[in-house]
Amino acid sequence: MKKLTIIILMVLGYSVAISQPDPKVFTTSDLVWCGLDYSKVKCIGPDGFNDPYAIKEQFFRSWNHLMLSESDKYNFKEAYLKESQTNDLSVVMERNTLPKVADLVIYDSYSIPEEDLQSIISTYELENAQDGLGLVYIMETLNKNTQHASMYMVFFDIASKEILWSKKYISKAGGFGFRNYWARTVYETIKASGDDYKAAYKSFKRSSK
Asked: Where does the source fall among the domains of life (predicted)?
């Protein structure tokens, strides 16, 4: 039974590392999308990642640009019930130069401890936004063996750099071509986290009455 449960979770995708959202996540109507942060990511399963240089130099940028060029599909504003969305990818574009190509692909399991998220967010100095509600996806793994990617959804206060809500998602890859195959995991995470946001928002509204 336990094995069957694990298989079902891997097929559907799932979330872990739940923390209680700060009310600011719900009361702030405008969202600043800060991008996909690959600074700590690892690619697991070398057979699926035979060109780590291209992953760093081409695809980190390509995946981030895809979120903007196909914003109707990757719709963060709609998923999180916001009135408006602005984009400031200045930090992630710089941070995504940090991984060493030689260390990008690994054989073993890997995770980013949730307590490390705050130290990452504390480095964020956005070019165009000095305050407001920020959202970033901190990418953890692209796992060819399981055909899933893991990432943290992180809402944070831009001015104080305080994390307001973080949650880890493990989502299934799919699609034609390397870019689309792994971009699918972000799309699935937007859907799953959007559902979680809406459920948490309902609870927040009930408790606020």
From this structure: Bacteria
CA–CA gap between residue 45 and residue 50 (Å, rounded):
10
Q: How many residues does the chain have?
A: 209
Q: Which long-range contacts (CB under 8 A, 24 or more apart) does 188-193 make?
A: 188/13, 189/13, 189/137, 189/151, 189/153, 190/74, 190/75, 190/76, 190/79, 191/79, 192/13, 192/14, 192/15, 193/15, 193/79, 193/80, 193/153, 193/167, 193/169
Structure tokens at 57: 């130099």
> For 46-95, what is each residue's pLDDT tens digit?
889 999 999 999 999 999 999 999 999 999 999 999 999 999 999 999 99
The CA-based angle 114-122-118, given to 5 degrees, is 15
Between strands 105-106 and 42-44, the pairing is parallel
Q: Each residue of 30-53: pLDDT tens digit?
A: 999 999 999 999 999 988 999 999
How far, in Å, CA of 133 to CA of 58, rounded? 29
- Asked if residues 84 and 29 have their Cβ atoms less than 8 Å apart, the reply is yes
Look up the pTM and report it.
0.91
Tell me which residue has tokens 């504003």: 77
Strands 105-106 vs 148-157: parallel, antiparallel or unpaired: unpaired
Do residues 31 and 85 lie in contact, with contact meaning Cβ atoms separated by under 8 Å? yes
Q: Record the tokens describing residue 81, joined without a space.
A: 């019930």
- State how far the alpha carbon of 79 is from the alpha carbons of 71, 139, 164, in Å: 12, 19, 17
Q: Which two tokens stand for residue 108?
A: 């073993």
